[in-house]
Write a structure and sequence with these properties.
The complex is a heterodimer of chains A (164) and B (120).
Chain A lengths: L12 H6 L18 H10 L2 H10 L5 H17 L5 H32 L9 H10 L2 H7 L19
Helix pairs in contact in A: 2-4, 5-6, 5-7
Chain B lengths: L6 H6 L18 H10 L2 H9 L3 H20 L6 H39 L1
Chain lengths: 164, 120
């Protein structure tokens, strides 16, 4: 019978956008407040409301807010970068990580070099010359010189190269 | 039915037209690829997204969507955002380590200079 469901005092953002009655058991209501239409609009545009509903139904209730937060983030990034989405962000972070690894390897090798000559001063161990040499050596080789852990300890293996 | 339907049209059980937007990116020998992307985004949304992109960028877009969809299937709560958080944490740790090591280098250089000066 029409209208037998209790009417919610205010529709959530999802039901407002979808132009439907928002029930007390609406799966979207706790996570898409009526004041946040834009967030739901973005999520709906990328994933679709029914897919989001299925995804939320597949996770425990206590994890649904985190799920919505990550979906909203992915949707935002995908709308800003329709070709690469979050993969672009991951590739940038991986590149930054590689640069830091290189800088760290250089710094560690310099530290070892200084520690090694602290008691034996030699004109040949001139810091600027050593630094210039270190700058020319590929970072992967530098990692081997000081015996530190491999890059894998820091890099997330995505199983395939970055898209950018 | 056209035996050469793309994976998308096979999955959706429909005829695969000559100008099918999915056909170049979802070959029939890889049904799992489309199934995964359809599960997370839906065929309609993927079609709309591809239509809004220039032809030359669509292949990359499909690959990135497939990767993100797979991440979401593997981790329904965080998806690929989990990878971003992990990388950000690793970068923060590496930056802290770098700052510490560079400070140690500066101290070692200072001590070395002092040793050299005292020898003269």
């Amino acid at each position: 019978m029409r209208g037998h469901e209790p009417r919610s005092s205010s529709s959530c953002a999802a039901c407002k956008l979808l132009k439907r009655r928002c029930t007390p058991t609406c799966i979207f209501a706790p996570y898409f407040r009526s004041s946040d239409l834009i967030t739901f609009a973005k999520v709906h545009k990328v994933f679709g409301a029914s897919n989001v509903s299925k995804l939320l139904g597949e996770v425990p209730e206590e994890q649904r807010q985190e799920t919505v937060n990550s979906l909203a983030y992915e949707a935002e990034v995908r709308l800003k970068d329709p070709v690469y989405g979050c993969i672009g962000a991951i590739a940038s972070l991986q590149k930054k990580m590689l640069e830091l690894q290189h800088d760290l390897a250089v710094a560690r090798t310099r530290l070892l070099a200084h520690s090694g000559v602290s008691n034996h001063v030699s004109p040949l161990d001139n810091s600027p010359e050593l630094a210039a040499f270190l700058d020319l050596v590929p970072y992967s080789d530098l990692m081997l010189l000081d015996g530190s852990t491999s890059l894998d300890a820091y890099l997330y293996d995505l199983g395939q190269p970055p898209f950018v | 039915m056209n035996p050469k339907r793309c994976a998308a049209c096979k999955y959706l059980r429909r005829r695969c037209p000559k100008d099918c937007i999915f056909a170049p990116y979802f070959p029939p020998n890889d049904p799992a690829k489309f199934a995964c992307i359809h599960r997370i985004y839906g065929a309609g949304n993927v079609s709309k997204m591809l239509q809004q992109l220039p032809d030359q960028t669509r292949a990359e877009a499909v690959e990135s969507l497939c990767f993100e969809a797979k991440c979401r299937v593997d981790d329904p709560v965080y998806g690929c955002v989990g990878i971003i958080h992990l990388l950000q944490t690793q970068i923060q740790n590496a930056q802290n380590e770098l700052a510490k090591t560079q400070a140690e280098v500066a101290v070692a250089q200072t001590k070395l200079s002092q040793t050299q000066n005292s020898d003269f």
